[in-house]
Amino acid sequence: MQCESKMEILTINEEILLIVVWQLKENAYGFPIMKKVMEITKKKISYGSLYNSLNNLARKGYLAFCKGEPTEVRGGKRKVYYTVTPQGKVALKNAKQFHLNLWLNIPDLELD
Amino acid sequence: MKDYDKRFSSTGDFAEFYNYIFDKEGRTKANLWCWFQVFSSVFPFLIFSVHWRLIMFKNYIKITLRNIRKNVIHSFINISGLSIGLACSLIIMLWVQHELSYDRFHKNADRLYRVVYSSDDGDVYGRYLPGPLATYLREHFPAINNTTAFKSLETKISFDKKGFSSIGSYVDPSFFSMFSFPFEQGAPKTALSDPSSVVITKDLAAKLFGQDDPIGKIVSYYSGYSDDIPLTVTGILKDIPQNSHLQFDFLVSFEIAYNWMKTWGNKNVFAYVLLEKNIIPEEVNQKISGVLKAHKYDSNLNLHLQPIKRIHLHALGGGGRITYVYIFSMMALLVLLIACINFMNLSTAQSEQRFKEIGIKKVVGSSRFQLTIQFLCESMILSLLSLILAVFIAVLFLPSLNSMLGIQIDFKYTPNLFLNMIGIALFAGVVSGSYPAFFLSSFHPVPLLKGNIPFFELYRHKGKITEGKSRSPLFRKTLVIIQFTLSIGFIGCILFINQQLHHLRNKDLGFDKENILVSKATRGFLEKASTIKQELLNHPQVQSIASSRFRMDTWESTDFSSAFSWSGKNKEIESLIGQNWVDYDFLKTLNLEMAEGRFFSREFSSDPTDAVILNETAVRIMEINEPLGKEFIFNPGSPNERKKIIIGVIKDYHTESLHREIRPFVLELGGGRNVYIKLQKGYIAEALSYIESKIKEIVPGESFDYAFLDEYLDRLYKNEQLLGQLVRYGTFLVLFISVVGMFSLASFSIARRTKEIGIRKLLGASGSHIMFMLTKDLINMVFFSIIAASPIVYLLMKKWLNNFAYRISLSVWIFILSGLMALAIALLTVSYQSIKAATANPVDSLRYE
């Protein structure tokens, strides 16, 4: 099979994160992202690993981030908002396509 | 976005999350979650920051050990040099610690003071004071909590016919509430409240009573003039700590001291005071300064307090042992510095062998910082190894050092010492490793790997090693020059010190000091003085016998005052006049000379009451013309006024160490307990056994302790001799370390030049030519060092010699001599290798490729 693009296949964690960030739109900063991820995966994830993964995605160019205004609730700390870059969107589409292709010839999971 | 912004943001998220859990599941859950997060991040952190570093560190150790094995000799030189330096500083640290610990064990050490006096102009000072002073201070000054008199005496304590000559003191009963000498038995509060009691040390108790319980036993105390006094033992002290300036075997009450000690007219007793809490000593100083003046009609002496903790180290007139503490610390530092310089030089010289390693490391991605750390680690590993060796050396040499130097330090392990040692070792490691570390890590990897490394010389630097800058030759030259400078400095100092010590020992003091036996007469001795004298003089080798109240070498305990007058006195003189009482044979025995007039003589019956003799200095200071026959008055205008006639002027002789000019003094007839026996040269042993047997015969049971006069005189320069000895050892160590370092450095550089030498020889260079080529730089550097060292030596020695009123002059030839010695040593060191290189067959050196 020939590769359509040189982009790497996303890992499942990266995929989840990208989807979550994309879903949250303007509200995509650390805390909601984490909450959402935990809702989706039904697992507790460690605090540090989230930031590592986000930073990795940013380095790969799938995510961009910008500073928000400091707010009272967070003890005066700024939020860092993440957005999915066009590159990230392509990667997501590719991932979706990849999954579809992967499942294409398997009609039923109720395998004997 | 900056990194810390992200971090802030994540803590913000963290807070939000915490609040979220808090709202949903309560405080406990939220806290638990928080702690869980914290702990779960610790482990990754450890792995990333520590684990990998440890692994790298393990690698450093491995490489270090491999390098040691590869260059056994050089590593040995490196480590041994460093460990000698460390051992040296370790020993001196122990000594300094010991010196600083003096008198600090007293619970009240901060509030304890000794009363001392000084004259208005500060020229005269002393610690011997009138006996009643202690009591007077206690009764009249509320700021003073307690006081005690302290008067040392040497006498015999006996029990059951067993007598021991011991050193003791008269003290007030308050002594034990001021000082914390621990008791083995007995109650400190009441131990001396009864005047007929005595407190002795464990040591003396064991000697006197053996295993028996000493408390309540009655010993007889030998008072010198009257009958023996029976005293009851009321307390046993633990052995007196060595770091106490007060040393004694027993203590008795001041009540039983001689009556003359209890008068204001006599200065003979120490006074110690314990201040109330939170009293500033300066305030007390102001109050008590006039006490002496108030009690002695014309004294110009002021009292002040000297903290007890300063007594051991700080002499009254300034200086004292503290100077030696500084000098020796400095010396330890210098020896260490030289060892470090060795280390630096050798590691840089050795570095060529490691160019490949450094190059590869750099290519693989090691940063300069990492390389620096690696080399620093290496030198620290080496210095820690040296430390272990150093401790062995120190433990091995301490006993012999103690006995050689007459000091007492022992190797006591304390955590503090341990930390200090590690600290010094690491410090030495960093200092000596820093230069190689920065130097080696600065290379560009490409030329290192290409292998076209140009000549890497010992003292000269041709071509470039790196593509960038490298100041290595200049820097290393400087290091070698520092090393030479220190060596020459040490050599110069020791030459001057030896010369001055020689001068001190051989200066004509104005009297004979050879073959003269000095003994302190005991009471039994004095009772039969004339018989003994007759008997002893019968022996042909005993030439004459004389006595004086104060020993020839002691001025301090001389009773002096300015209460003198003489006919024709036209001005008050500032200087104090010493007094001594001597007998008829004094002049003859000590071979003194008269300048004018005559000495005391048995032919003049009026001499014992009317005659007085001055020394030349006294006559000069008093400005008496034709002093003979003039009147000399003691204590004019007071009830005990004495008028005497000057019958002679004695030539000046030294009554104290050569630190001071000769001071004026007067001699009266009287004699005293210091007996001088002049023996014939060459028959000392014979005469001694005769004297001992005779004395045993005439006064059985009396101990006869003696020493020779020159021994006493030598003791005046104990500190100077200690200094001389230590500087001698220092010089030896410095020379040893530098020589070893130089040797191995030279072997490196010459090995590197083998091919050059071969080609030069092939082209017609002679052996001497090559020798000259190899040693030219060395000679240059020695000359540089002579120029650098001379002013330092000059200033140091000038300062030291200023302590002496009689001193040598700083002659130029010693500077030249020390330079030549250094040059000779340096040439000798490198000669082996350069001769070998110069005489080698060029074919051998060129063929090896």
Summarize it:
The complex is a heterodimer of chains A (112) and B (849). By secondary structure, chain A is mostly helical. Chain A is 52% helix and 9% strand.
The end-to-end span of chain B amounts to: 59 Å
Radius of gyration of chain A: 16 Å
- List unreliable stretches of 5+ residues of chain A: none
Largest sheet of chain B: 7 strands, mixed
Fraction of residues in helix of chain B? 40-55%
Largest sheet of chain A: 2 strands, antiparallel
Number of alpha- plus pi-helical segments of chain A: 4
Number of helices of chain B: 27
- The N- and C-terminal alpha carbons of chain A lie at a distance of 28 Å
Order of helices and strands of chain A: HHHEEH
Determine Rg of chain B (CA atoms, Å). Answer: 37 Å
List segments of chain B where confidence is low: pLDDT < 50 over at least 5 consecutive residues: 454-471
Number of structurally distinct domains of chain B: 4
Into which percent range does the helicity of residues of chain A fall?
Answer: 40-55%
Structural class of chain A: mainly alpha
> What is the domain tally of chain A?
1
**pLDDT averaged residue by residue of chain B:** 81
- Average pLDDT across residues of chain A? 76
